[in-house]
Specification:
380 residues; alpha+beta; GMP Synthetase, Chain A, domain 3; 2 domains; four-stranded antiparallel sheet; three-stranded parallel sheet; 11 helices; 15 strands; globular; AtuA_N
């Protein structure tokens, strides 16, 4: 069953706590609606009904552009990088909306706001506009609220997740998620709940600040163009697990454009992952992967199928990831274990099914030491 929204949001994040959310008057905003926000809201309504609580659920729609498909195709839109024509098999097309519909829903009394495609930071900016009455032209404030959203949009990434100095971050198993306390002037304090793992420091927050930013002086959002180049992050003593004060975001008017995300069907793929043990594991892995491809290509030519449209062979353990900068071992033998990562892409499903079938026979028909297929037969 294709739901089109994030079911965990309903079953794991909301259902167990729905009575507390109602009792404490907590207002919840989420973009878990995906490409089917109305169905997500209906599932939440069901949860509320079962728990016998009355919650006003608002849905932000308008991000779905599928009705515009033919107009966009007629406009002659092409892929900037490859020059490819607008794809025939578009499955979804959604525009990244901003914070205003969220603040409007809150103004109208919504307890829960579910959006479809939306910029991640807008989920934080929306309630700040609602709470403080920030105007459309108060660009420094809108940039500050967007920065608050940008810093917490990846959850535990700003509380020590994937931090360069990861060895200094305690208790990953119980990592705390961030809390933002924002003033109407746009300054805010970033902290995390007491007695949780992770770490908030200048470094953890600064790394999240520059994450996925592009030009820090022109970070483009639907509500504001942000300049984060003068932002200051100051550690505040006396907080369990650390806290920082953030200020100095500047803003200017947004562009007249929205960003659009589209998906289309481009064929089928499968991925085989096979550990290889014993001496010369890397050489065995490479030859095994190449032989599987050779064998399937032979079958394709007999059936009149075209070749794969893309292939990825990587032998993990050989430092393939580093390309020409890989460090080769001194004895020339290399490690005694490696992992074949072999992925293929083809326009026809049947071709990828043949590939999927031909992995297991390598276990008895090729190199010694192929010790298993991770996850079983590759899924098409």
């Amino acid at each position: 069953q294709v739901l089109g929204y994030t079911p965990d949001f309903v079953s794991a994040a909301m259902a167990p706590y729905i009575k507390d959310i109602h009792r404490k008057g907590v207002r919840v905003i989420s973009n878990a609606g995906g490409i089917n926000p109305l169905a997500c809201a209906a599932a939440l309504q069901e949860v509320a009904k079962k728990a016998d609580v009355d919650l006003k659920i608002a849905v932000v729609t308008g991000d779905d552009l599928m009705s515009e498909k033919d107009n966009l195709k007629g406009a002659g839109i092409t892929d900037l990088e490859s020059g490819k024509q607008f794809p025939e098999s578009i499955h979804s097309m959604n525009v990244y909306l901003g914070a205003r519909p969220i603040s409007r829903a809150l103004d109208l009394g919504a307890d829960i706001v579910v959006t479809g495609r939306c910029v991640d930071s807008g989920i934080v900016l929306g309630p700040l506009i609602h709470s403080f009455g920030w105007n459309r032209d108060e660009f420094d404030l809108l940039a500050a609220g967007s920065l608050a959203g940008h810093l917490i949009e990846c959850g535990a990434q700003c509380t020590g997740g994937i931090f360069t100095d990861w060895h200094a971050v305690p208790d990953w198993h119980n990592i705390g998620f961030p809390i933002v306390e924002c003033s109407s002037e746009g300054d805010f304090i970033l902290s995390k709940p007491p007695d949780t793992g992770g770490l908030i420091s200048f470094g953890t927050v600064a790394e999240q600040l520059v994450y996925e930013l592009g030009n820090p002086q022109r970070y483009l959002l639907p509500d504001v163009t942000c300049d984060f180049s003068e932002v200051s992050i100051t550690e505040i003593p006396g907080f369990d697990g650390g806290a920082v004060k953030v200020h100095g975001a500047k803003g200017s008017p947004p562009s007249t454009f929205y960003k659009v995300n589209a998906t289309y069907l481009d064929g089928f793929r499968a991925t085989a992952v096979c550990p290889v043990g014993g001496p010369k594991a890397i050489q065995k892995g490479k030859r095994t992967a190449e032989s599987i491809l050779q064998r399937t290509r032979l079958i394709f030519s007999q059936l009149g199928y075209e070749d794969y449209s893309a292939v990825n062979i990587q032998v993990l353990g050989s430092e393939d990831t580093y390309g020409p900068h890989a460090r080769r071992s001194i004895d020339g033998q290399g490690p005694r274990e490696a992992v074949i990562w072999l992925a293929v892409h083809h326009k026809r499903k049947e071709a990828v099914e043949i590939f999927s079938r031909e992995i297991a026979p390598a276990g008895t028909g090729m190199a010694p030491g192929l010790t298993g297929i991770v996850g079983g037969r590759p899924r098409v």
